[in-house]
Design goal:
Elements: E1 3-4, E2 9-10, E3 15-16, E4 22-23, E5 30-31, H1 39-43, H2 55-61, H3 100-107, E6 112-117, H4 127-140, E7 143-148, H5 156-165, E8 170-174, E9 192-195, E10 207-211, H6 212-225, E11 231-235, H7 241-256, E12 266-268, E13 270-271, E14 278-279, H8 281-289, E15 297-300, H9 303-315, E16 325-327, H10 333-336, E17 345-347, H11 350-365, E18 373-377, E19 379-381
Helix pairs in contact: 4-11, 6-7, 8-9
């Protein structure tokens, strides 16, 4: 269809000339609007270029028109209107989705952060770390790709291969329990942030850790302020690094107040290999609490141990907290908020640790300096299982 111009019409199809010849589209002929061919001319067979044309045919087929009386071209010569519209307003048109491979080639980055976990991504409560990571990557314009070792060291190399195959920009390495990583567990060429675990000897890989020492200190201060002067402790599994950290924090804070922690009032709460350990807190706490000479408050390695201590006290006819105050650790809300009386405890800042890990990794990707160790505050959560003692002797 020809397109109208300022001075005429650009013809994109073969057309007749006033002399009866043919002009091909490639000739880009301009036909004056004063000599639009009549309907008869448009329907008549065209005379090839070079063929003789009669005056009759030329006179009949082409009728000059003055500029004052020129009319719009016939409908078939008028350019059809082409309305413009936004793709998002057209029904059935899908929104644009960037091609990840193309973006990666153009920017030399994937905008994907890899996350390696042992059992964190499938374990209740500690999944808050993953939630924290997810909430932060969205603000920074990243996506996450999570791989799980299921606690199997042989899977770690597979996880690294998987992430490097997807060309991730960096990695956040998360563990369920605090421990020192082995050198072969990390890739020195990949920007990495550790969460809840410690770098191998000689490595300066940045680490995000919970400040469990300060958290335990807050709990002890609250118990001392409530008037307690006889303290016991039901330990975590000694195979877990946090067991020593929490117990040492308990002893040091008590020593600042001149309060000793009697060795015979420190008992096992769990034992066995990590991930396969067994709780012993019910039996050990019951043996401790059945004596008249017993602590007025028991600190517990975690909330699961505290739950067994609750049961042990109940089995002996002791009332919590009037006969015995109990303090947990971790703030497993399915225990701490549901049990009655509700459990006083120290909350691990899993969500904040996840967010801080993303912040540290993005800083590192920008070439900025990152602290080797970042300690995230553990908050003391006071509920109903800690009250002043009821006159028990220690």
């Amino acid at each position: 269809t020809p397109a109208k111009t300022l001075n005429g019409v650009f013809c994109t199809q073969p057309h007749s000339t006033p002399t009866g010849g043919m002009v091909a589209p490639s000739d880009a002929a301009i036909v004056s609007p004063a000599i639009w061919p009549s309907a008869q001319a448009r329907s008549a067979p065209a005379t090839p270029v070079g063929s003789p044309a009669t005056k009759t045919s030329g006179a009949e087929l082409w009728k000059p028109v003055s500029c004052e009386t020129v009319q719009p071209p016939p409908a078939e010569f008028q350019m059809r209107s082409q309305p413009t519209c936004r793709a998002s307003s057209v029904e059935g048109v899908k929104p644009y989705i960037p091609n990840r491979a193309a973006v990666m080639m153009r920017n030399n980055r994937s905008d994907i952060i890899g996350v390696i976990t042992d059992v964190v991504s499938t374990t209740p409560y500690s999944t808050d770390i993953i939630r924290g990571i997810q909430s932060a990557v969205e603000a920074h314009g990243f996506s996450i790709l999570t791989v799980n070792t299921a606690g199997n060291p042989e899977q770690i190399s597979r996880c690294w291969r998987e992430l490097k195959g997807h060309r991730v920009d960096g990695v956040i390495y998360v563990t369920m329990f605090q421990r020192h990583l082995e050198p072969w567990e990390l890739d020195p060429d990949m920007p990495t942030i550790l969460v809840n675990c410690h770098a191998p000897a000689g490595s300066d890989t940045p680490t995000i850790l919970p400040d469990e020492i300060a958290g335990m200190a807050q709990a002890v201060e609250a118990a001392v302020a409530a008037g307690h002067n006889s303290f016991g402790y039901v330990r975590l599994n000694s195979s877990v690094m946090a067991a020593g950290i929490r117990e040492q924090a308990l002893k040091e804070t008590l020593s600042h107040h001149g309060q000793p922690l009697r060795p015979d009032w420190c008992v096992k709460g769990a034992e066995g290999p990590v991930f396969k350990d067994q709780f012993t807190a019910f039996d050990t706490a019951r043996d401790l609490l059945k004596n008249a000479d017993r602590p007025s408050v028991l600190f517990c390695g975690n909330d699961q141990i505290a739950l067994q201590v609750f049961s042990a006290a109940c089995s002996l006819g002791l009332h919590v907290p009037s006969d015995l105050s109990i303090v947990g650790f971790d703030d497993f809300t399915v225990i701490s908020e549901v049990i009655r009386p509700s459990l006083t405890t120290v909350a691990l800042p899993y969500f904040e640790m996840g967010r801080e890990a993303v912040s540290a990794l993005t800083q590192r990707l920008r070439g900025e300096d990152v602290n080797t160790h970042s300690w995230i505050t553990c908050h003391f959560i006071r509920r109903n299982s800690l009250v002043p003692p009821a006159g028990l002797t220690g």
